[in-house]
Amino acid sequence: MEVSSLPISASQRGKLISAGYTSLSSLSSVSASHLAQDLKISENEALEILKVASRRSGLDRIDNGACAIVNGAQTAWDMLHEEESSVRITTSCSDLDDILGGGINCKEVTEVGGVPGIGKTQLGIQLAINVQIPADYGGLEGKAVYIDTEGSFMVERALQIAEACVEDMQEYNSFVRKDVRACQIRKEPKDFLDNIFYFRICSYTEQIAVVNYLEKFISEHKDVGILHYFHFRQDFEDMALRTRLLGGMALKLMKLAKKFNLAVVLLNQVTTKYSQGSFQLTLALGDSWSHACTNRIILYWNGNERYAHIDKSPSMRSASVPYAVAGRGIRNCASSSKRVKMM
Amino acid sequence: MKPEDLLHSLPTQTPKLTLNCPLLDRLLRGGIPCGTITEIAAESGVGKTQISLQLLLAAQLPTSCGGLSASSICLHSEFPFPFRRLHQLSLFYQSHIPNNPLDHIFIQPLHSPDHLLDLLSRLDSIVSQLNIRLIVIDSIAALFRSEFDNTPLELKRRSSLFFKIASKLKSQAQKFGLAVVVTNQVMDVIESSGNLRIGNSGFLCSSGRRVCPALGLSWANCVNIRLFLWREEERVDEEGGDIGSMLARRFIRVVFAPHLPDCSCEFVIKREGVFGVDR
Questions:
Q1: Contact A271 B217 (CB under 8 A)
Q2: Does residue A340 sit in helix, strand or coil?
Q3: Which of A155, A156, A161, A269 is deepest in the core (most CB within 10 A)?
């Protein structure tokens, strides 16, 4: 019984089991107020239990070597459970969340590419805020690591998006919660900034140093939920060296995603590649990088609207959806005919 | 350098350099941010150099007035440098900058992209010695436009120079808290070619022609903020006469910026400088 392995008090455990909550997945979809009612405990206590449970279900899998035949291996059943109960990070645009299967997935590397001004940094900042949404509102309650190689991260924008997030949570509160007192929003917009670990990189050597440092950093800060990474572009004379370095970095990032149950979001630029006699638009950094990404989202202009296109995904089919960059952040496109194009 | 040193705590506000006009500052939500590269693209004669000169002076304003209390350096590739205009403008700043403002503006002509790179690598010591907090490059386009053929190999070489220049600028901007402003020219857009949309407008127009900022996608990837200035000619009819005159109106627009919505503003160039107008 997974609940029995949770680091909670014996009486809490007893109450959980007798109320029918025996597995971690059963706890993943219940709200704190419901749990409090079922167990006849305070809502704060219920919140604590849920927090412990969600953290466990993430990191538990790695430590479960004793039950596996091969150390570190899992059964497919376990993996399905895990995926069903994994919390995805919302993009705040429900259309985009839909084609992503709920949002950005942890344990995976998602690449986001597009021309300047299309919204890559906007999406990056939105996700750095959204990863912090408390568990009570369906979020990961995690922290973000933002590795900025471009210098595009503006605090003012992050604060603006954080304010909108707090307002959204308050609105949700007033709709859903009957007992407003119990769940006052304790987060201020400024608190969101405190939970973003911001690295500013200006050269290739700094980039390699940070990527190598990340493993140590994240093991010290276990509550990091998302890692944003803007790759540093530099034209290498030696293509073989570039392939090796990029490949090495890609592997490290993938390993970080899996080991620490993080979502890794790579923000990439668009460049033109000369092939077959003409210039074609393509994501920068070449094929060696592309293979490392589990998912790929391309952001592009279609007339006067911004569109997001799922270019690569192991579980979702190719689709495009319009989105908007508003003062509040990334949101659904306001147009009445929502053209979700399936490929 | 340890990796831990690269972790920064976020300030609540990015320091900004005022344009010395409240309307223009409102468009930019405070002014030109430090630590990033702001590009001003326009066809010639619309006002990019005028704005650059204004910024060179504004940098010396005390921080309470939105300045950086520091010197500035202008690397220029367009000749001749408008010394007289700069002097004329400086006279309007004497109330805030008592000592000769021109003493704190350093001018350096540029001859080639490699020359610029060389200068930038030597800039580290100069910046701290002379308390420089604004770098203006006027213009980046003039440096590149004649030197490169239109072959893929040459264009690749050109792109690689863009990255080197931009990354040096950004690294210094980050290290010393500098504001960096780069002006760029525009090229005419030929209708039939598939023009790639970059930023808030499907097409940018100036003086009645479709234009786009020079240096292409690679350079666009290098800048953080792109502002576009343009001119429209309006026919103004004289009262009671048949002959109307053409009035040039100037506008500025945010093409892309991480912290600014798409917005534009009209401006005029007066003797005292560039000022936004509310019409």
A1: yes
A2: coil
A3: A161
User: Comparing A246 with A72, which gets the higher pLDDT?
Assistant: A246
The interface predicted TM-score (ipTM) is 0.90
The encoded tokens of residue A154 equal 């503006």
Phi-psi category of residue B197: left, alpha or beta, with phi > 0 → left and psi -120 to 50 → alpha = beta
Cβ-Cβ contacts under 8 Å, B255 against chain A? 117
Q: Which of B201, B217, B227, B228 to mutate to test the interface with A (most CBs of A within 10 A)?
A: B217
Q: Choose from B25, B167, B228 for mutation: most chain A CBs within 10 A.
A: B167
Q: Report how many Cβ contacts below 8 Å link chain A to chain B.
A: 117
Q: How many CA atoms lie within 13 A of B130 on its CB side?
A: 20
- Smallest CA-to-CA distance from A112 within A314, A316, A296 is with A296
CA distance B69 to chain A (A): 22
Model confidence at B10, in pLDDT bands (50, 70, 90)?
confident
Q: What pTM value is reported for the model?
A: 0.83
On chain A, the residues whose CB falls within 8 A of the CB of B256 are 116-117
Of the residues A118, A150, A161, A270, the best mutation for testing chain B's interface (the one with the most B CB atoms within 10 Å of its CB) is A150
Chain A positions touching B226 (Cβ under 8 A) are 116-117
Give the Cβ contact number of residue A76 at 10 Å.
7
- What element of type H or E holds A85? helix A76-85
A57 prior amide bond cis, ω within 30: no
| Contact residues, chain A, for B163 at CB < 8 Å | 233-235
pLDDT at residue A107 is higher than 70? yes
Q: For chain B, give the DSSP string.
A: --GGGGEEPPPSS--EE--S-HHHHHHTTTSEETTSEEEEE--TTSSHHHHHHHHHHHTTS-GGGT--SSEEEEEE-SSS--HHHHHHHHGGGTTT--S-GGGGEEEEE--SHHHHHHHHHHHHHHHHHHTEEEEEEE-HHHHHTTT--SSHHHHHHHHHHHHHHHHHHHHHHHHHT-EEEEEE-EEEPPTTS-PPP-SS-S-EEETTEEEEETTHHHHHHH-SEEEEEEEEEEEEEPTT-S-EEEEEEEEEEEEE-TT--S-EEEEEEETTEEEEE--
DSSP state of A232: P
